[in-house]
Design goal:
The protein is α+β, with helices and mostly antiparallel strands. The protein contains 14 helices and 23 strands.
Length: about 475
């Protein structure tokens, strides 16, 4: 930080605050739980990021509080999570206790709770750097007490808090507007894709050969499914198993992974096959028989469908474009290799839009997982547009998606800029540059001296002994 502004002082947190830890009573003792004492955990703050907090999901009885090292901190205490993760901040709006995941600060008269709250928000990254531990980083009570805090005159603290919250209120409104735009863009994207696969995105051309002719030329049978959208007259329906070779993937044979005749190849898992894109950042390899590797090798244009997982993930997928040589797919990923004249991306878009509900309705559910069998996937009804129209649809989808992508990037830039402005506001606040100094304010040094004198005159509090259950 820059040098202290005139009238300000700096002190260790432990010199101007009571640093208080927390604890958890025995969870197997019912008498400790469900009382009138609010009890807060880091998980509670992860779900409620408001400035003021009055409790958490659970509460303690008085005997539960006294059974452990938890402390009832007064209203105005700034709660700061010291592990898992470090850096959630809130102000207790009434007396509360916390678990051991906090090093909370009860400010003396040198600091207002609001000024301390915002300063800890500003110092979060610095405090995270002080954490230590092997399983997860944690800031100890001793370390938290050494964190240097900047102390402005009380009247200036109040002006700073007002200025921060006015600026953040405007940023909140701007970010809320950007998030609304993001949701609207998502709806537009969904609407474009739905229109693309039901004949509503581009006008039909009466000179196009109808899809029925394409199917007839390929010797394929059209379908007449029920419960599907109405299509233009030049379009047709066909089952996926009719217009594509649909197969499952490889099951790992753990006992034969050391077989010298096997070859090692990359393969796609469910996690790689997302809705509308492929996540290829982490690719696993598997050893299989050479003939199995050749049989299951993915080809550009193969449409991938997930077989199992959560129910809302059934059938999600995208098109393989040959990104990785010799890649195959596991048994929980189906691939459909289409007949000529049927555009793979349109089939996949249909699967990710209309197909989402269709697959959910027909998937089988076990205790933990849902699944889709090969017979059901082959029966999936697919709309077929005339070949020439398919090309026009894809060009229009790409044009409109490019525009939406640019809009989403602009939203991301706006949100990033807002986050940067928040950091700048806090930096200016705690360098004394956000509001003007008033020479009539009592200097912080005078206030600190008075507090030190009062503290030195107080008797040392005895530590409460922990009860045993």
């Amino acid at each position: 930080m820059t040098e202290l502004p005139k009238g300000w002082a700096e002190a260790a947190a432990g010199a101007v605050c009571d640093v208080v830890g927390g604890a958890t009573p025995r969870t197997d003792t019912a008498a400790y739980w469900g009382g009138e004492i609010p009890w807060v955990t880091p998980d509670d703050l992860s779900k409620d990021r408001r400035k003021l907090v009055d409790g958490g999901r659970r509460s303690l009885t008085q005997v539960g509080l006294e059974s452990c090292a938890a402390t009832l901190v007064p209203a105005g205490t700034v709660l700061f999570t010291s592990r898992a993760p470090i850096g959630y901040v809130a102000i207790a709006s009434r007396p509360v206790a916390t678990n051991q995941g906090f090093k909370s600060l009860t400010p003396s008269d040198a600091l207002t709770s609001d000024f301390l709250y915002w300063q800890l928000q500003y110092l979060t990254e610095t405090i995270r750097g002080l954490g230590s531990g092997t399983t997860f980083a944690e800031v100890s009570k001793k370390v938290m007490a050494t964190v240097p805090l900047r102390i402005a005159p009380i009247a200036e603290q109040e002006r700073i808090v007002t200025a921060i919250e006015e600026a953040f209120s405007k940023l909140d409104a701007g970010e809320a507007g950007l998030r609304v735009v993001r949701q609207l863009l998502k709806r537009m994207r969904d609407a474009i894709l739905s229109a693309a696969v039901t004949g509503r995105l581009v006008p039909q051309d009466p000179t196009d050969a109808p899809a029925a002719k394409l199917l007839a030329d390929l010797g394929l049978e059209a379908a007449e499914p029920e419960g599907v959208p109405e299509l233009p007259p030049s379009w047709s329906w066909a089952e996926l198993g009719v217009i594509a070779e649909v197969v499952g993937g490889v099951t790992k044979d753990s006992k034969r992974q050391s077989d010298p005749s096997f070859v090692e190849v990359p393969y796609l898992r469910v996690a790689n096959v997302q809705r509308g894109f492929l996540d290829l950042e982490t690719i696993t390899t598997i050893r299989v028989a050479p003939e199995k590797a050749a049989q299951l090798e993915l080809q550009p244009g193969d449409v991938l469908f997930n077989e199992g997982g959560d129910r809302d993930k059934l059938g999600r997928g995208w098109v393989w474009e040959g990104q990785i040589a010799s890649c195959i797919h596991q048994n929980h990923v189906f691939r459909a290799r289409l007949s000529g004249g049927v555009e793979p991306k349109l089939v996949s878009i249909w699967g990710n839009t209309f197909g989402r509900g269709w697959f959910e309705d027909r998937g089988k559910q076990t205790t933990n997982l849902a699944s889709l069998n090969l017979k059901t996937l082959k029966a999936f009804p697919v709309p077929i547009a005339p070949v020439e129209e398919q090309s026009r649809i894809l060009a229009e989808v790409e044009r409109q998606m490019s525009f939406l992508d640019a809009c989403e990037r602009a939203v991301d830039v706006g949100l990033a800029r807002s986050a940067g402005l928040r950091r700048s506001v806090l930096k200016a606040a705690f360098e004394g540059q956000l509001v003007p100094q008033d020479p009539s304010d009592e200097p912080a040094t005078v206030l600190l001296e008075r507090i030190r004198a009062e503290r030195s005159a107080q008797p040392v509090a005895k530590r409460r002994a922990r009860q045993t259950a």
